[in-house]
Amino acid sequence: MDKKYGKIAELVHFLIKGSYEGKENLNFLDLTCGNGNDTLFLSSLAGPKGHVTGLDIQEEAVERTKNLLKEKSKYNNYTIIRDNHEFAEKYIRNKIDAAVYNLGYLPNSDKNIVTQAQTTIRSINSLLPYLKDSGRIYITAYITHDKGYEIYKISDFLNCLDKRLFNVIHINLVNKDNNPPELYIIEQNL
Ligand SMILES: C[S@@+](CC[C@H](N)C(=O)[O-])C[C@H]1O[C@@H](n2cnc3c(N)ncnc32)[C@H](O)[C@@H]1O
Questions:
Q1: 44 lines ligand 1 (CB under 6 A)
Q2: Which of 86, 88, 148, 186 meets the CB 3.0–4.6 Å disulfide criterion with 143?
Q3: From the CA of 34, how far away is ligand 1's center (Å)?
Q4: Closest by Cα among 145, 150, 142 to 124
């Protein structure tokens, strides 16, 4: 069935697939593995010659992601690490094609363990020098978990990114109640 642009998680996958499908040696990062759905998608797209590095601050998320990929990924092309994405730079070996953040908390788990504006921004900032010319960062952000504190800080940060170097795209659903997730995409302006 056709993907719905209005479902941000589906839109992210649609956009990434459209941009990177069929390319070789893809290098993907998932900065918030959670249940592993995005990591599995990236692993499938990366194929046998590509690689996905997944990070999550929680052991439970790392376990869920490893189990999902063990069961469903066709490729042994992933590394799943428990760490704060603030330190993602430590794990970057090659230039990045796409990096994915799906912010907030792990569903069906402790809602107090949640992404934080300052560490998220430090993490995003640390990836910028590693983007390939065609590289992008996809950030799905929510208003609901902290009354918008994190998303507004991220928005402020992205609004100030050097316009000569980067394009920042913002997608939101304008006709829905209950603050649906919003998507920011950073790409090189080359
Ligand atoms: C909405 S979930 C991610 C969903 C996931 N992408 C998926 O496809 O299932 C957000 C995740 O961010 C993780 N997280 C929160 N703060 C973090 C941090 N500083 N560094 C890395 N992961 C973090 C949480 O543990 C949680 O698993």
A1: no
A2: 148
A3: 5
A4: 150
15: CATH = 3.40.50.150
What the block records as the tokens of 141 is 């952000």
Question: What span, in angstroms and rounded, lies between the C-alpha atoms of 149 and 66?
Answer: 31
Q: How far is the CA of 115 from the centre of ligand 1 (A)?
A: 7
* Backbone torsion region of residue 74, taken as left when φ is above 0, otherwise alpha when ψ lies between -120 and 50, otherwise beta: alpha
Instruction: Say whether pTM exceeds 0.85.
Output: yes
The per-residue pLDDT for range 114-130, each reduced to its tens digit, is 999 999 999 999 999 99
Q: Which two tokens stand for residue 45?
A: 């797209």
Inside any domain, residue 130: yes
Evaluate: CB of 37 within 6 angstroms of ligand 1. Answer: yes
Q: How many domains are contained in the chain?
A: 1
Ligand 1 contact via 65 beta carbon (within 6 Å) = no
Per-residue confidence (pLDDT) for residue 135, from 0 to 100: 98
Query: In Å, what is the CA distance from 117 to each residue of 30, 34, 38, 127, 186?
Result: 17, 18, 21, 16, 17
Range of the domain at 71: 8-188
Structural domain includes residue 160: yes
Give a yes or no: residue 90 inside a domain.
yes
If you ran DSSP here, which 8-state letter would residue 114 be given? B
